[in-house]
Write a structure and sequence with these properties.
Layout lengths: L1 E4 L6 E2 L5 E4 L12 H10 L6 E5 L3 H11 L4 E5 L2 H7 L7 E5 L7 H10 L8 E5 L4 H9 L4 E4 L4 H26 L1 H31 L2 H22 L13 H7 L12 H4 L7 H8 L1 H13 L6 H12 L20 H15 L11 H10 L7 H17 L2
Parallel strand pairs: 4-5, 4-6, 6-7, 7-8
Antiparallel strand pairs: 1-3, 2-5
Helix pairs in contact: 2-6, 6-7, 7-8, 8-9, 8-14, 8-16, 9-13, 12-13, 13-14, 14-15, 15-16
């Protein structure tokens, strides 16, 4: 065995120990063991571990991040975006943690290059930043980042965010693998796909909860309330316009409604977790979660004919904040121009918001929540749906957490 001294160039922080231990290659001079060979060999070691690449021009942040993650993952560190791009020639990490504010090439410039490289464009990128600006975060997300983590970061939060994004990526790969062979295994694999879909939804819900702190329970609760409303509406036999109410698959609708708040992933923590009233500008940004949610779901469609699951999910995400009198958002629709599923989701969404603690308020009682929704008949809510809700309100109480 030969002990290779680690390179001390400050632009290279390979994440290795003090010495790189490498077997001598028979018949080959020791001095010809090249850097690419060393990097490839390093990647081969611990191949069962997920590989994380941490990129930051601060040595302290590299040390902190590596210490937080190295117990669960193999970690490669780079002191600049240029070093990262060079390392990607021989290493394909499962996830990249990329500092935004770096000299010479910043994180935004680096991710543009990554997304143009066929071998790297699918690698999830989480931005690390000390900036607290929603427009800044939105720009990064539009460039292809999957998340933001504020610096100085908390090691437990860093580990959890990395874990969740790796889980989402793994589930996405599994789902794609199944879809590639769907025609030959539809009957045999239907139950497996449904389980995988539920895992993916649970991961997304947990991701949103990690940003919001309340939305995870909100997703479970609203799904239960939607089941009550959907079943009651179907039983009432009310004409649903263009929608074939009698043919509704309520289980499918309830699964898809879990994505109604998925757009909140793109909203800044400073807004989501603000304990007081939002400013007009902050509220305008918060309203965009409906648009972000629709965009996110459309990306899942990937140009293919939309499935019923995704069509329903887009309706829930895009229309659950519209109001009967046209004062809602994002489109300001009124009356029956609002899709029926959006009108139903509005009641479930508001009921849970009223009866749950929020950073800015305490929970209302069931009776107070019912009174507020009934008073919103014809302004916020569809009058016919409020009548159904009022008749079934006791079931809402029994379903409460």
């Amino acid at each position: 065995m030969v002990l290779w001294p680690q390179r001390q160039d400050p632009g290279y922080a390979w994440g290795l120990t003090k010495f790189d231990i490498r077997p001598v290659i028979p018949g080959k001079p020791k001095c010809l063991t090249s850097l690419p060979t060393r990097l490839k060999a390093t990647h081969m070691e611990n191949s069962n571990s997920k590989l994380i690449m941490l990129v930051d021009d601060s040595g302290a942040n590299l040390l902190t991040g590596k210490a937080a993650l190295s117990g669960s993952y193999k970690v490669l560190t780079a002191g600049s975006a240029a070093t990262m791009l060079e390392m990607l020639e021989w290493n394909k990490p499962d996830l990249i943690l990329l500092d935004v504010d770096m000299p010479e090439m910043n994180g935004f410039q680096a991710i543009k290059i990554l997304k143009e490289r066929g071998d790297a464009k699918e690698i999830p990128v989480i931005f690390l930043t000390a900036m607290n600006d929603s427009n800044h975060e939105l720009e990064g997300l539009e460039l292809g980042a999957v998340d933001y983590i504020a610096k100085p970061f908390s090691p437990p939060l860093l580990r959890k965010r990395v874990e969740l994004h790796l889980l989402l990526k793994d589930n996405e790969k599994e789902l794609q693998s199944y879809n590639d062979n769907l025609q030959s295994m539809v009957e045999e694999k239907t139950k497996t796909i449904l389980k995988l879909q539920n895992k993916l939804l649970a991961s997304m819900a947990e991701m949103v909860e990690g940003r919001d702190g309340v939305t995870g329970d909100h997703i479970v609760n609203t799904m239960r309330y939607m089941r009550i409303l959907l079943s009651a509406y179907q039983e009432a036999g009310i004409c649903g316009g263009a929608e074939e109410v009698s043919e509704w698959d309520i289980d499918l609708l309830c699964r898809s409604c879990q994505l109604h708040d998925v757009g909140k992933i793109a909203i800044s923590d400073a807004i989501l977790k603000k304990p007081g009233k939002l400013t007009d500008e902050e509220f305008a940004t918060m309203q965009q979660h409906t648009v972000f949610g629709v965009d996110f779901i459309e990306k899942l469609e990937d140009g293919e004919e939309s499935s019923a699951f995704l069509r329903y999910a887009k309706t829930f995400a895009g229309y659950h904040h519209e109001k009967w009198n046209g004062a809602g958002y994002p489109h300001g629709l009124s009356g029956e121009a609002i899709p029926l599923l959006g009108r139903l989701m509005a009641i479930a969404d508001v009921y849970d918001a009223l009866t749950s603690d929020r950073p800015y308020k305490k929970a209302f009682s069931h009776e107070e929540a019912v009174r507020i929704i009934v008073e919103g008949r014809g302004t916020h809510f569809d009058p016919a749906l409020v009548d159904i809700f009022e008749k079934k309100s006791e079931m809402f109480r029994q379903t409460e957490k």
